[in-house]
Amino acid sequence: MTSKMMKQLLVVLLLLAPIFDISAAATKEYIVYSVAGKAFLVEGRQETELHANVRLKPNSMIKIENESAVTVLDEKNSKMFSFTKKGTNSVKSLVDLATNKGKNLPKLYVEYLVKELANSSKKKMVHPDSYMQVSATVFRSESNEKQFVNEVFDLFTKKDQGTLSAESMMVDKQILMSTDMDVHFELVSCATGNVVTKEVAGNSACYVRVRNRTMSPLYVNVLNIDRSGNKYLVLPMYEDLTCSNLFVPADCTVSFTNEPFIFPEGQSDETFVLFASEEPVNFSVLMSPLKREGEGKMKVGVFRQFYQVK
Fold first, then answer.
1. How far is CA 72 from CA 29, 30, 271, in A?
2. How far from 277 is each of 61, 94, 191, CA to CA, in Å?
């Protein structure tokens, strides 16, 4: 091949390169794994609320509101990215911003997550109260749940506490608790947007704001328990017990504004306990009496708040 032909071929390849790049970018997709707080897909003047299992292109524009987070899966490259930047931005710009923070995942695990997301989108969200008995049976054969309960039990019990149950210690202000991770939460009034004080009126509507102060993404839920031992798990899950809606990216604050709850009517003392783990667990096991089973445990973050309903 002559040098003239070589130059001509090089020119053609250089001209075609942008076309190949555009084609590759056009076919690339990201799958929404979770949305904590509020986020929207922006198409022109139309805004559609973003949710799990939505597929996005690099040039897709998404709007993320304050104290919100969007986490996506790059199925082709087996990576997970979390976005918390407030405002409207392209997916590509958000990925570029988070490139060094992307989490590598095993290919088979990504395939499993994509499959579960597709199934979950066809299922309804239910509150843990409605599947407590079923999940309590299922968890007996799940090592993650056993290890989670073991650690929760250990964090709330001490050898010198005698025969007190973990639940009794949760509601006792005098008994100190431990935690494996730096996590925090507060309750926010739906009416005013202000943080709820320790004394709150009955029938007040609130939502949970969670601060993950660790460098690892976490799965979270909040247990409400009163002095009589009545329990309520604040954040719901899909009926097949997937936990993508409970995901909080590393080192960020998210508000679960889509999951408000109401304080009970009448005077009562209410304890709220945040639980966090690095792995998805069936948090509804907290609805059953906590008992240590066998060996093994996992890292669990715990943070507690006390409220008096007037």
1. 10, 6, 34
2. 31, 26, 30
